[in-house]
Amino acid sequence: MSFIRTGIDQGNSDARGSGLSGPAAIRSEGAKLVRAGFIPLVDACVLIAAAEFGFAAREGIQLDLVKDVSWANIRDRLAFRQFDVAHMLAPMPVASALGLGSNPSPTITPFTLGRGGNAITLSLNLYRRMQFKAELTGQENSLANAKALKLVIEDMRQQGEALPVLGMTYPFSSHNYELRYWLAAGGIHPDQDVKLVVVPPPMTSDALSAGLIDGFCVGAPWNMVAVSREVGRIVAVKEDIWPSSPEKVIGTRPEWAEQNPETLSRLIVALDRAAAWCDFPDNRHDLAQVLAEQRYLDVPFDIVHRVLMGRFTTDPDGTERTVPEYFTFHRDGANFPWISHAQWIFSQMVRWGQVAYSPEAHRQVTAAFRPDLYRKALGSRADIPVDDMRIEGNTKNDGFIDGAVFDPRNISTYVAGFEIRNTGPGLDDHSEI
Questions:
Q1: Buried b (16+ CB within 10 A) or exposed e, 73-97
Q2: Inter-helix orientation angle 45-52/261-279, to 10°
């Protein structure tokens, strides 16, 4: 492994400096073992960096990482105490707080793993049809792509063809809500105009290649893998839909947090320092080398490094796109567990009929994200927000694709403002490939 740049003081987000060659060099005999599950995605890199580059060991923690293949497995293995903490979808603790899903065991998050990383990819056949129908040049924005897909779906209905099948990773996922948001912004009803199915992240490009699905929303690097295999075309990224959309978090059981308060605080400190290190561009070469290994992503280094730098190819023709903030791991409060983010997730569950709105449900959601534990671990640094909630989507650089603004104090009015929505529960039973 090449020379590792660390040297972060608590409260200092500058990740430059000199460091050690890995956790083994500084792991003490008395280190506290913390077992953590993860899915092979680039946005697990803060957790991986904490283990690989010594940040956890410095806090007296032996971070044992366990690779898994599906979010349902992650949920269950955390519930059954095979994991102490886990790389999780941000909506999973919210779903557990509301008693949703097949195993809604209590789960909280005291730490967000950053922003960005998702994209929506369609099959080349479907995209070529969009190009023909809407006269696309390939340079259109994500909203124009959604509207072009609507034209194709209308044509498919007229021709009596089967509607597109689109994959997402889990019913209670940012991918599900972002895919639905993008579709609805283009005038497409996600439960009437397409069929949504669940596909585990590492299987998405395989399912697209096999013709089992016509597109998907997933985290990096799997969109880019589909493009490299010449089976997909990226039509939208997370930043196009809502830059601050909550993505992955560290999930744990409330009882583990209560029984291990010091360990949890030290883990948060380690993750905070690892996130700051991951945010520094000069460190991303070393980070990509580790992530590309078989025990983590098992994906070519070049794909991982380009994704980390926000540079990727959107189609097999070689069209390039650069998104400077494609990943934000630490700066601008990226690790803070905003309660307003939990409430936005709740609003999407209400919008799509997964749960009915009630004041009690609104209160229950508040317990899923724990900024109090984040502040307890990191103190009163200047970069830590004072408030737990804020208005979302009301700034120039943080707007929603459809121009909506989210006020967490008035969810019912917010949901009622969408022309495309559902009104009843029962949408958590998606077919699974």
A1: ebbbbbbeeebbbbbbbbbbbbbbb
A2: 100
Quick check: 354 and 425 in contact, CB under 8 A?
yes
61-95: pLDDT as tens digits: 999 999 998 999 999 999 999 999 999 999 999 99
Per-residue pLDDT reduced to its tens digit, 230-240: 999 999 999 99
Token reading at 425: 């529960």
d(CA 278, CA 300): 19
CB 166 within 8 A of CB 194: yes
Please state whether the peptide bond connecting residue 93 to the residue before it is cis, i.e. omega within 30 degrees of 0: no
DSSP 157-211: HHHTPPPPEEEES-SSSHHHHHHHHHHHHTT--TTTTSEEEE--GGGHHHHHHTT
Of the options 3.90.850.10, 3.40.190.10, 1.10.10.10, 3.40.50.1000, the CATH number for the domain spanning 118-244+416-432? 3.40.190.10
- Tokens 């690097």 belong to which residue? 221
Question: What dotted CATH number matches 23-116+246-300+329-378?
Answer: 3.40.190.10
Q: Report helix, strand or coil for 206.
A: helix
Q: How far apart are CA 237 and CA 187, in angstroms?
A: 18
**Tokens 């960005």, residue located:** 116
194 φ/ψ angles, rounded to the nearest 5 degrees: -140, 170
The predicted model scores a pTM of 0.91
Q: Which phi and psi angles does 272 have, rounded to 5°?
A: -60, -45
DSSP 243: T
Q: Please name the residues in contact with 413: beta carbons below 8 A apart, sequence gap of 6 or more.
A: 407
Give whole-number Cα distances, 256 to 59, 71, 168, 210, 370, in Å: 18, 20, 30, 42, 14
The answer to whether the CB of 132 falls within 8 A of the CB of 123 is no
